[in-house]
Design a protein that fits this description.
The chain is α/β, with parallel strands linked by helices and 962 residues long. The chain has an eight-stranded mixed beta sheet with strand order 7-6-8-9-10-15-16-17, with helices on both faces. The longest helix is centred in the last third of the chain and has 30 residues, at 644-673. The chain is elongated, with a radius of gyration of 51 Å.
Length: 962
């Protein structure tokens, strides 16, 4: 039911007369300056509500601001829900009424042409309900959108899609400018959350029920079950009533409505609302303040007074609030612009010109639009502030239709995303979230509480077409055979795919379709392209996940780890066996060990030279003894040492030598018994430099990888099977064969399992993501199958499949065994060497300090005739001589003196042995004891040598008897 036009016209006239008869209480004079304003609306639900709110706004505004000098006079026209009717109404207002502003029209299609009229006449056009983003593209400075752009809600819809993980969405929209305007921004928002639009459902504005049903049946044959509906409530109520009738409001479906319907839910009949059970939607939020509730009461009272029969069909919506605020903003702007003489400048026209050409130009248009653009106030719908000629994005409510009413389940803001409660304070923009935990429990279609997965297998009964490549080798992964018009597929990849599909919580029907090109071959890239062209729904095989393929299809998670490596022949390493004993230690460790032996031997000579006769004698003899002593420590058969410091050094050194010998022995043993074979090539650059031929599996992406590594195309040889690869290796590069082969590691492992004694895997591994299954771009199966792959690969089922097709790899030595050096390095022993060097250095320092202390009379001598060089030479001579103060020499000297007095020599020797002294050295003569010079000492030594030698022989005999 609609209000009768005469009643509304009478009400408009009363309001206009009321504003004209306002008297200024201060002066008692009429100061009202009338400014004509046109209103173009349809006389339906939104139009009637908007017109009433505009009239109430002006009446209440001027009642509260009776001191204003300007008064808006309304002239209303009915557009009759027609684009031409709206244009004619606007043209009539501009030409005949000479209005200075136009509020309306309602729809985006009507507003498009009226904007051009307003721009030509310099008359602001203010719409409170035309929301299409396409209107913003019209370059007119006289267009004001006192409502929201439809594109402001797409991010809220995208957040909902992301919160529940839906991957495909089908928009259902009305086929006009209002419906089409949101699609570009909606598609972009969905792509940002990794959701795709596989199909767009377009409903004509005047569609019949049969047309709507036909489109719905078409949607039922598609896998996607998430729909975004963008249309007005008048068409939307028919759509949902028919969706309920055809069974599309069941548990499998997700329906999301834009604010085109959500803003007018209170105008939809309760029977239709019940059919919309489970629908969720977004709509702008406005505060239900006390002022709003008072206005709502006044609005309903006004509507009831005008037409009691329409009372229940004119519930207030946000469009009425925007209409109210639009009238207030225009009244403020007219007063701010200080309009005094609002006239139209007539165009110079001839009698043959049309009505459009006779439109004049408003004299106050520029000032009025400037004042309107800068007007800011707190309205019923929230803050009224125009930026770029339109209102800015407010928070959005996420509503859920439950029974005859809707309830708010969450909110969305552009700063914080989806939140449970609104926070009107400064927020941290880094806390944006789309977690569905911030959404209250939702009742979904079918009266279910768990969210639908958003897609199903199509109801048309069509099986998924899964392409499988026809291979001529490596049948362990996939083998396709055909006989009697039937195709048989088997292999590792096929069994994994079957196990994954069985683990899904729903049934998926599919069939394998062999793929090969006209020449009975076909690369994997060709197969990927066929899936991209939608000739296949997916593909199964040993298909490597690489970047360029992911631009055309979607990969699942890998079901096996992979990478690209190199296989080369091995040869017996006979050329290096003669010197294999040097390989257990690295060069640094050999040099360090040798230097340590020499330094320890030299240190022991220093510590023992003055007190041990074994370390005395001619220089060459002492040098030989030193080296012999040092290296004899390896077998622990060296001369006895006397000094305690020497013994401490040797104890530490023996520990180092023991560890070195044991480690060397273990390493050499390992080399002689294990490492028998060596690869012929270990460096890829060597193959490139020598222009060697290399092989790759036919149809594999490895060909492009080798080209990228700068191999010449003429040096690349394709193989189809493991047998063909072995034949190419046997020929060698010189005979048209290959020196190395590159392939995925799983394929190389199969090859090595059959030829492990002849080939080995060497070189670096070029990382890839492994083998995966492929599906069409945006397929909802990808997410579920990826999750199922994780379950299967972590179960014993995967081990059974691998054992069945790939066999037991332990039957051969590890194919990727490293052929790098196993030599022991200095880094493994530097701690031991550090300890022995610290002990040796400490012993040397202590010895030097003690030596200088014993000969301090030489260092401290103040004789003027002694130079520093003389002192150094004297210290060297003192070091070269025996240390007669050492206890061993003192005991022997006393016993020899007794022997000269007639004592028994044998008894003297036995006593010497009992004291655990070392063998008696050549003793100096008594004259040396009395301080004779060095020349006399040497002479005396010669004279007494015979006696001493006899004593030594007797001591040796006594020792043997003991």
């Amino acid at each position: 039911m609609e209000l009768k036009l005469p009643i509304l016209s009478l009400f408009t006239l009363v309001v206009s007369l009321n504003t004209l008869t306002t008297i200024n209480s201060a002066t008692g004079q009429n100061v009202e300056i009338p400014v004509r304003v046109g209103v173009v609306v349809d006389m339906g639900y939104t139009g009637q509500m908007g017109l009433v709110c505009i009239q109430m706004a002006l009446s209440e505004f001027y009642a509260a601001h009776n001191h204003f000098e300007t008064r808006l006079l309304l002239s209303h026209r009915d557009s009759n829900r027609d684009i031409v009717g709206a244009a004619a109404a606007a043209l009539d207002l501009l030409k005949n009424e000479e209005v200075q502003a136009i509020i309306g029209p309602l729809t985006s299609e009507q507003t498009n042409f009226v904007i051009n009229l307003g721009d030509k006449a310099h008359v602001p056009v203010i719409t409170f309900s035309a929301t299409s983003p396409s209107l913003s593209s019209i370059r007119s400075s006289y267009f004001i959108r006192a409502t929201l752009n439809d594109s402001s809600q797409v991010q809220a819809i995208g957040a909902i899609i992301q919160a529940f993980g839906w991957r495909q969405v089908v928009p259902i929209y009305v086929d006009n400018e209002f419906g089409e305007g949101i699609i570009p921004s909606l598609t972009d928002a969905l792509e940002q959350v990794n959701a795709h639009v596989p199909y767009r459902s377009v409903i004509p504005p005047s569609a019949t029920d049969d047309q709507i049903a036909g489109e719905l049946y078409k949607l039922m044959t598609m896998p996607t079950r998430v729909f975004v509906v963008h249309m007005r409530a008048l068409l939307g109520r028919r759509l949902f009533a028919k969706a309920k009738q055809v069974g599309m409001m069941s548990k499998e479906y997700v329906w999301i409505i834009t604010d085109g319907i959500a803003n007018e839910l209170n105008s939809i009949e309760s029977s239709v609302m019940e059919s919309m059970l489970g629908v969720i939607g977004v709509r702008p939020h406005f505060a239900r303040t006390e002022e709003f509730h008072k206005f709502e009461i006044r609005y309903k009272k006004t509507v009831w007074q005008k037409n009691p029969t329409e009372y229940h069909s004119l519930d207030l919506s946000i469009y009425g609030l925007w209409a109210y605020d639009s009238a207030i903003a225009l009244a403020l702007a007219v007063e701010k612009a200080r309009v005094r003489n609002a006239t139209f400048l007539k165009a110079n026209t001839s009698s043959n010109w049309t009505d459009l050409e006779r439109i004049g130009v408003s004299s106050i248009g520029p000032e009025l639009i400037k004042a309107l653009s800068s007007t800011t106030f707190r309205g019923l719908a929230g803050k009224f502030e125009l930026i770029d000629g339109q209102l800015q994005t407010p928070p959005y409510e996420i509503v859920n239709v439950v029974g005859p009413r809707e309830r708010v389940v969450s909110y969305w803001t552009k700063e914080m995303g989806i939140i449970r409660q609104l926070i009107f304070t400064d927020v941290n923009t880094n806390t944006y979230t789309t977690s569905n935990s911030n959404i209250a429990p939702i009742t979904w279609p079918g009266d279910r509480t768990s969210p639908p997965k958003g897609w199903v297998i199509p109801t048309s009964g069509k099986k998924l077409r899964i392409g499988v490549p026809v291979k001529y080798g490596f049948f362990e992964f996939l083998k396709v055979t055909s006989s009697n018009n039937t195709t048989h597929v088997e292999g590792y990849s096929k069994d994994v795919f079957d196990a994954v599909i069985k683990s899904l919580p729903y049934s998926v029907q599919y069939e394998y379709i062999p793929f090969s090109t006209s020449d009975h071959t076909g690369s994997y890239n060709d197969l990927v392209y066929q899936v991209y062209k939608k000739n296949f729904d997916g593909a199964v095989g040993d298909i490597a996940i690489v970047a360029n393929r992911s631009q055309y299809v979607d990969f699942t998670l890998p079901y096996t780890q992979s990478g690209v490596s190199m296989v080369v022949p091995v040869r017996d390493d006979n050329s290096k066996k003669a010197w294999v004993f040097l390989k257990p230690l690295t060069k640094k460790l050999w040099v360090t060990t040798f230097c340590s032996f020499v330094l320890i031997g030299f240190l022991i000579w220093i510590l023992e030279h003055r007190i041990n006769e074994d370390f005395r004698g001619p220089p060459w003899e002492q040098l030989g003894v030193t080296f012999w002593f040092a290296f004899s420590t390896m077998v622990f058969t060296q001369k006895r040492v006397i000094s305690n410091m020497s013994r401490i050094v040797l104890i530490i050194w023996f520990l180092v030598v023991l560890i070195l010998i044991q480690s060397y022995t273990a390493s050499l043993t390992s080399m002689l018994t294990v490492q028998q074979m060596q690869p012929t090539v270990t460096d890829v650059n060597e193959l490139i430099r020598k222009h060697e031929n290399v092989g790759y599996q036919e149809g594999s992406f490895v060909y492009g990888l080798l080209i990228g590594m700068h191999f010449e195309e003429s040096n690349l040889k394709a193989f189809k099977s493991t047998q063909e690869m072995d034949e190419l290796f046997t020929k060698g590069t010189a005979n048209g064969g290959i020196a190395a082969a590159f392939d995925d590691i799983p394929c190389l492992k199969i090859f090595l399992a059959n030829y492990c004694s002849k080939y080995t895997m060497v070189g670096p591994t070029y990382k890839t993501d492994g083998f995966g299954f492929i599906f069409q771009k945006g397929s909802p199966l990808v997410t579920d199958i990826s999750g199922a792959i994780l379950k299967v690969t972590q179960s014993t089922k995967m081990m059974e499949i691998e054992k069945k097709w790939l066999g037991n790899e332990s039957r051969c030595s590890s194919p990727n065994a490293s052929f790098s050096s196993n030599s022991l390095a200095l880094e493994s022993f530097w701690g031991l060497f550090m300890i022995v060097w610290i002990v040796a250095l400490s012993a040397f320092i202590i010895y030097v300090v003690r030596f200088l202390h014993q000969n301090w009379h030489v260092v401290n001598r103040s004789d003027t005739e002694s130079t520093t060089l003389d002192k150094i030479l004297e210290l060297i001579q003192s070091f070269y001589n025996r240390d007669l103060s050492y206890h061993a020499f003192r005991n022997i000297e006393i016993r020899e003196n007794r022997n000269c007095c007639g004592c028994d020599c044998t008894r003297r020797v036995e006593e010497s042995l009992c004291t655990n002294a070392p063998p008696s050295p050549i003793l100096p003569s008594p004259e040396q004891q009395n301080g004779r010079n060095l020349v006399e000492q040497d002479s005396s030594l010669q004279n007494n040598s015979t006696n001493v030698q006899g004593g030594e022989i007797q001591r040796d005999e006594t020792r043997n008897q003991t």
